[in-house]
Amino acid sequence: MVVVVKKNPDKEQFENLTNWLKSLGVTLHISEGESNMVLGLVGDTSSVDIDLIRSLAIVEDVKRIQEPYKNANRKFHPEDSVIKVADGVEFGGGTFNIIAGPCSVESEKQVIEIAERVKKAGATMLRGGAFKPRTSPYSFQGLGCSGIELLIKAKEATGLPIITEIMEFSQLPLFDEVDVIQVGARNMQNFELLKELGHTRKPILLKRGLANTIQELLMSAEYIMAGGNEKVILCERGIRTFETATRNTLDVSAVPVLKKHTHLPVVIDPSHACGYSNYVKPLALAATAIGCDGLMIEVHNDPQHALCDGAQSLTPDAFDDVAKACFALRPYSCRY
Amino acid sequence: MVVVVKKNPDKEQFENLTNWLKSLGVTLHISEGESNMVLGLVGDTSSVDIDLIRSLAIVEDVKRIQEPYKNANRKFHPEDSVIKVADGVEFGGGTFNIIAGPCSVESEKQVIEIAERVKKAGATMLRGGAFKPRTSPYSFQGLGCSGIELLIKAKEATGLPIITEIMEFSQLPLFDEVDVIQVGARNMQNFELLKELGHTRKPILLKRGLANTIQELLMSAEYIMAGGNEKVILCERGIRTFETATRNTLDVSAVPVLKKHTHLPVVIDPSHACGYSNYVKPLALAATAIGCDGLMIEVHNDPQHALCDGAQSLTPDAFDDVAKACFALRPYSCRY
Amino acid sequence: MVVVVKKNPDKEQFENLTNWLKSLGVTLHISEGESNMVLGLVGDTSSVDIDLIRSLAIVEDVKRIQEPYKNANRKFHPEDSVIKVADGVEFGGGTFNIIAGPCSVESEKQVIEIAERVKKAGATMLRGGAFKPRTSPYSFQGLGCSGIELLIKAKEATGLPIITEIMEFSQLPLFDEVDVIQVGARNMQNFELLKELGHTRKPILLKRGLANTIQELLMSAEYIMAGGNEKVILCERGIRTFETATRNTLDVSAVPVLKKHTHLPVVIDPSHACGYSNYVKPLALAATAIGCDGLMIEVHNDPQHALCDGAQSLTPDAFDDVAKACFALRPYSCRY
Amino acid sequence: MVVVVKKNPDKEQFENLTNWLKSLGVTLHISEGESNMVLGLVGDTSSVDIDLIRSLAIVEDVKRIQEPYKNANRKFHPEDSVIKVADGVEFGGGTFNIIAGPCSVESEKQVIEIAERVKKAGATMLRGGAFKPRTSPYSFQGLGCSGIELLIKAKEATGLPIITEIMEFSQLPLFDEVDVIQVGARNMQNFELLKELGHTRKPILLKRGLANTIQELLMSAEYIMAGGNEKVILCERGIRTFETATRNTLDVSAVPVLKKHTHLPVVIDPSHACGYSNYVKPLALAATAIGCDGLMIEVHNDPQHALCDGAQSLTPDAFDDVAKACFALRPYSCRY
Questions:
Q1: Cα–Cα distance measured from residue A104 to residue B292, given in angstroms and rounded to the nearest whole number
Q2: Which of A43, A139, B228, D126 could form a disulfide with D160 if both were Cys (CB 3.0 to 4.6 A apart)?
Q3: Is D240 on the interface with A (CB under 8 A)?
Q4: Residue C237 has pLDDT above 70, yes or no
C-alpha cells in the first residue's frame, strides 16, 4: 500500500498516522518528493482500512498494491485448479464442459427428456432451477424440494451430475445428492451463505453479481475458500450497463482477467447474459473462443410454455446446433 | 401490455399466440397498421412473461404498460403511508427524521456516547451495525448478538429507537427489541429473507441495491408487503456508475420518482453514497432539499479508529453541524 | 407508436392531443381498457416527440414501436451491404479483414516496417493515427498532415489501403488519398462532422461512443447515409462500465444485435476495448468467433517507446500469432 | 507516480525502465518490500504514459498521484475563479445565477416573451438553442444563424446576456455578440473545438459528457485554459447509468468533488438531467442546496408545441415557482 501525504503535514497528525500504521504491523518506507511525501507500506496490509486513511486531513491519496485475496490468487497457486464434480467430469486444467437444462424444473417427463437430449448433444452436467429467485413475488418461484427430487431422478436416468441453485442455507440438507451448488448473481454477496458453504466440501458454482467487479467476485470466492472449501467454479453471466438491446452485457474480458489473477475455473452463461434465445449461439461461440472452461446454457423442450425465462431458452434442436458449433470451434480457442 | 406483431405473420403461430394470451385471462384489442399489427392486452397482465413473447418469431416488440407492483403502488393508495417506529417517531406524511450512529457497534461506552450526542443534535433514531456485510472475509464482521445487546442498552439509556441490519433470517429472534430491521443493499434481492420479513410486523428499512433500478426496489418492497407487512421504508444509498471520485453515485432523482410511484417513505443515506466524510454534508443538504423523509448518517466518536467504514463517518461535532444545517434548510425543501 | 392515456382523461386535453397527433399526419387507433386507453399511432412517427407526449398530464406512458432509422435498417435492405475500400478489399457479405497498424504514425521507417509486417501476416488494411484525440492537452497530438503523408508512403510501398481518423471537417481535403475515413468514439455524435461526411463518397468507419447505445450508433450512421453516403462500416470498441480491470468493456453482443437490425458491416477493435496488449488475443478470438466482419488491431514495432497507447499495442511477432489464430478460427465462427 | 515492480525482475528490463524514466526527467525513489519493489517517481510526471508502464512484463501496477491538470487545479489557484459574463453578471466567488430560456429558439415573439418572463422571475442570463445536436438526422436541427440573431434581439429587448451552443468552430464568427459559448455534452471531448475556443477570450460553459468522469471534464477545461482562455464555467447535466426512470442520472456529488479539485464555477442543468418537467423543481432544489454556482433551466411558453425537448421544459409560471423556491432555499445551502 502506498500513502501520499500532503506537503508539510501537521506534525502531530503525521506521527499519529505513522504510529497507528506501525501498530498494525506494517513497515514504512518514506520517500519525499517536491510537493508531497510517499509512504510505502510493506507487510500484510489486508487489514488496513484504505478508505479511513484516505479521509485523514493530511493524506492526499492512498493506493492498494497487493490483491486483497489469498486463497483464490494465482500468485500463490500458479497451477490451474481442477475441480472434480463427478466421475469423469472435471472443471479446469484444460477441460471443457457444457452444463445445460431447463431454467425451471417442471415435471419428471420434462426434465428427463431434456436431460437425455442435452446428454446426447455432449453436455456433461444437467442444470435446472428448483428454488427460483424472481424479481416479482407474483412470478413462479420454483418447485422447491420436489424440483430437486425430479433433478435427482433425471440424474439416475441419465448419469449426468446435477447443479441447482441454493437460495439460503437452511436449504442445505436438501442438496445432499446435488453435485454442484449454484450461488446466484443476487446472492454473490450474501456473505452468511458464502461462509456456510465454505464449511461444506461440495463444489460451488459462484455467479458474478450484476454490478460486481471481477475483484469482488474473487473476494466472494475467498469467503468460501477461507472456510476450507476450495472447490469454487466462477461464472460470468452479464453485467448491468446502459445498453438495453440485451438484458445484460456479457463481459467476455472477464475470462482473460480471471485467468491472470486466479487459478479457479471460469464458466460463462450466455443465456442469462443476453436474455434472448437468438443471441445465445453467437455468445456461446465468443465465450468458447475466449477460452472459458465451460458453458451453462438454458434448454427447454417447450420454450413458449416455460414457466420462467422461456425467452432465453433454446429448444433441444437449437441446443444440438450450438453444442456442435462450440465443440468444433473449441480446438481453435484461446489457451492460458 | 402491447404486443407488436410483424406484418403478415404465420397464421398458425399467430393463433397460438392469441389463444395462449386468452388462456392467461387477458382480453385482446387488435389494431392493424401499415407495417405491423398492435395487440392491446387488457386485464391483469402481471403473470404474462414479457421476454417470452418478445422471443417469438412473429413478434416485433412488446411493451408493458402497467407497473408490476400493487401494494406499493401510489395509484391504489394515493395517501402517503405513515410508518410509526416508536412513540413519537413516524416516517412519512410530512415528517423528517435523522437516523444516526456508528457504522459498527464497538463497546457500550462508544454506542451510548454517540447515542447521547446524536440525540442532542436532533436525531430520532440510533443506527449501529451488529452484523456487518464486508467484501473481505478478513475484515471485521461485527459483534453479532452482543452488538445488538449494546444497542438495546443505548436505547434504554437514551430512549432512542434503534435500527440494525439483518443478514439472514435465522437471526430474526435476536431482533425482538430492535425497532426497525434494516435490509442492506446486497440483500435487496435476497427474496427468501424478504418473504420471511413479510411475515413479521416490524418496520423494515429496505436499501436499494448498488445496481438495482427504482422499479426493482419497489418489487422488493412488494415481496415484503405481499406477505402482509406494509411497514416498509425505502432507502437510496448510491448506485454504481463509471465515476470513481465517489464510492457510489447518489441518485437523488430517486426521491421524486419514488414519490410519484409509491406511497412509502423514502430515506437517503449520504454516508454510504459518497464514502468520504467531507462529502456527507453537501449530500445531506441536497437530500433534504429534494424532499426525502429522512436521512441516515454515520457518526463515530473516533473515526480514525473505527473498525469499519471510518472514512465516511462524521465526528459528533461535524454531525451537529450537518444536522443543524439540514433542519434549517428543511422548511425550504421540496414537498410532494 | 403507442400512447397510453390515463383513465377518464380531461376531455379538452385529450382532444388537443388527438388533434395535434393527427396534424402530424399519423392515423389513430383507439383501444379502451379497464384502467386506461391505448392509442395506436400508425404512419410515419419519426417526427413525433416521444418525450413531449410522455410529459403531458393525461398521458401515462408512450412507447416507440418502429426503429427511428431507415437507411441503416435491415428491414428495408435485407441483404448485407458490401463496401469496397480498394481493389480486392471489401467489407461485409461474408468477407473477413484485419486492419492493423500503429496507434500513432511516428516516422516513415516505423510505418513502412509495420505495414510490411502486418501485410505479411494477412492484414488487408493499414491503420495509423495522424490526428490523435488525447484526453490531456499535454499529450502528443499526432503528426497531423505529415502523418497522413507517411501513411500514403506506406500505402505506395505495400499496396495496403489506409485508414486514419478525422478530427473535424476542415481536415477533409487532406484525406484525398486515404481509403477509409475513421470517425472516433468521441466524435460519434459530432453531428456537423457526420453531415459533412455524408456529402463525400468515401467509406467511413464509425466507432461507437463510450456510452452510446447500439441504436444511437445506428442513428449516427443514419446521419451519414441521409446525406447520400451509404458506405458506412460500424465499429464496436468497448463501452464504459463500472469494471476497472479493463479500460473499457468490449460489448461483443453488439455484433448479433447489429446483424439483426442493420445490413452494414461490423468491425471490432479489441485493442482500445481492453487497453492492455496481453488481453488483445483473447478478445480478438472472441470477436472473430461471434462473426464480426473484421478486426482493427494496434501494432507497434517498439511498444515501450510508442508515443501513445503503447500499452495496448502488440509487437509484430505477437500480431503474427493473433492473426494466425483468428484466421484459423474463422471457419468455425458464427454466420448470419 | 508510483510504479510497483514484480519480485526479482529481469535485470535488463529493469534497467531499461529506470533509464527511460530518468530520460523523461523524473527522479526515482526505490523502496523494496518483501514481495515487490516500489519506485516513487518525483517531478513532472504528466508526460509519462501510465498505461505503457503498466503493460511492461516486470511491472505489477502503476498509480498516478498528482492530478494531470494544472490550470484548472485548485491546488495552484486556491481562490475561486470569478468569471464576468456581462456587467453585473458574474459566476463564482459566492454568486448564484439562474440561466433560463427555451431549448430551441423558434421566433422573435417566443424568445422575447420567454426572456421577459424569466428575467422577471430572477434569471440573469438567457439560454436558447440555435444549432441543436439531435440524435436523429430527421429531427429539427435549430434555426442556425437566424436563431442567434433572434437571441440578440431578445438581449437588446431585455438586457439579459445570452448563451448558446456552438457545434463546430467554423461557426465562431457568428458568436461575436453571444456572451457565453456553450460546449455541449457530446462535444466535451471534441478536442479541436476546445483548442480553438482556448484562443478566444469568451467565457465558455463546458458541459460534462454523458459518460465522462469528473477528471475528464477537468482535462477538457484544461484544453481551453492551456490556450490562454481561463474563463471556463463547468456544467453537470446528468450521466448515463442503468436507471431508466429518468433520462440520465444527475450526479449532484460532482459539485463537492469539483469544489475540492478546481477553482472554476459549477452550474447544474436539471432539465437535461431528468428529461421530464415534473422532476425539474426537486432537482433544482437539490442542486441549489449542494452549493452549485448556478442553474440552467429550460423554459418554454408552449411546451406542447416546442420543436425539441418540450418534455423537459417548464412553463413560465412553473419557472416562477422553481426560481422562487431556489432563491428562498439558497441562504441555507452548502458553502465551500
A1: 40
A2: D126
A3: yes
A4: yes
Domain count, chain A: 2
> How far, in Å, CA of C113 to CA of D60, rounded?
31
CB spacing of B51 vs A187 below 8 angstroms? no
Domain end call among D63, D92, D113: D63
- Chain C hits for D211, CB-CB cut-off 8 Å, are 209-211, 240
Note which residues in 173-192 of chain C have CB less than 8 A from chain A: none
A112, A153 Cβ separation under 8 angstroms: yes
D240 Cβ under 8 Å from any chain C Cβ: yes
Mean pLDDT of B28-54: 75
> Would you call D270 an interface residue with chain C, using a CB distance cutoff of 8 Å?
no
Place of cell 464509425: C206
For residues B201 and B123, state if they share a domain: yes
Residue A68 located in a structural domain: no
Rounded distance, CA A86 to CA C239, Å?
39
Same domain, yes or no: A105 and A8 = no
Whole-number Å distance between alpha carbons of D241 and C55:
21
Check B253 against D281: CB less than 8 A apart.
Answer: no
* Same domain assignment for residues A293 and A176: yes
Q: pLDDT tens digit string along C86-125?
A: 999 999 999 999 999 999 999 999 999 999 999 999 999 9
Both C120 and C173 in one domain: the answer is: yes
Per residue in C271-297, pLDDT (tens digit) is 999 988 899 999 999 999 999 999 999
Among B210, B282, B302, residue whose Cα is nearest residue B251: B210
Within a domain: residue A178?
yes
Residue D40 near chain A (CB below 8 Å): yes
- DSSP symbol at A173: G
In a domain, B75, yes or no: no
pTM metric for this prediction: 0.92
Any alpha helices (H) in chain C, and if so which ranges?
11-23, 50-54, 108-120, 145-158, 191-198, 214-226, 254-261, 270-274, 280-289, 316-329
Q: What are the C-alpha distances in Å from C316 to residues A335, C106, C299, C329?
A: 20, 16, 6, 20
Specify if A336 maps to a domain. Answer: no
Which CATH number characterizes residue D297's domain?
A: 3.20.20.70
Pairing of strands A125-127, A162-166: parallel
pLDDT tier for residue C195 given thresholds of 50, 70 and 90: very high
C334/A241 touch (CB, cutoff 8 Å), yes or no:
no
Contacting residues of B for D250, CB less than 8 Å apart: 252-253
Whether B322 contacts chain D with CB within 8 A = no
Please give the grid coordinates belonging to residue C241: 462500465
Judge whether B138 and A46 are in contact, CB under 8 Å.
yes
Cβ pair B266, B336 in contact under 8 A: no
Residue A60's H or E segment, with its range, is strand A59-63
H/E segment holding residue B37: strand B36-42
Last residue of a domain, one of B34, B63, B92: B63
The boundaries of the domain holding residue A299 are 83-329
What is the CATH classification number for the domain harbouring C11? 3.30.70.1140
- Whether residues C292 and C245 share a domain: the answer is yes
Which range (A188-202, A266-280, B20-34, D156-170) has the least confidence?
Answer: B20-34
Query: Per residue in B149-180, pLDDT tens?
Result: 999 999 999 999 999 999 999 999 999 999 99
Q: Are C126 and C256 in a shared domain?
A: yes
Q: How far is CA A25 from CA A21, A43, D217, in A?
A: 7, 7, 40
Kindly list the partner chains of chain C, i.e. chains with 3 or more CB atom pairs below 8 Å: A, B, D
Measured from the Cβ of residue D24, the count of other Cβ atoms closer than 10 Å reads 13
Grid cell for residue C40? 395506436
Of all residues in chain C, the one with the smallest CA distance to B33 is C42
Statement to judge: residues B89 and B59 lie in one domain: no
Shortest Cα–Cα distance, B143 to chain C (Å): 32
Identify whether residues B206 and B112 lie together within a single domain. Answer: yes
